[in-house]
Amino acid sequence: MLKNPYIVTFSTWGVLLLELLIAISVFLSSQRYKQMIFLAAGFFHLFIGVFFGLWSFYFAMLGLLIYILFNSFEFNYGTKIFTKI
Predict the structure, then answer these.
(1) How far apart are CA 15 and CA 41, in angstroms?
(2) CB 67 within 8 A of CB 22
(3) Where exactly are the transmembrane stretches of this chain (predicted)?
């Protein structure tokens, strides 16, 4: 399977695209989009846990995904820094 260049290319760029979508989804307000990204990223990290035996990595990433995607952040860049000065 790894001798097929199309599978290797798709899997390599697919992982990068998924991780980029996770980072972008933090700034979006669509709950439906965040739920889809959560499921895709959850299954992706589950496969890492199954195939590589990295269960602590899976649970850490799952907790981080829940915290990042479903926690309401307020992005007030710079205001907290300047109020402490």
Answers:
(1) 10
(2) no
(3) 6-28, 37-70
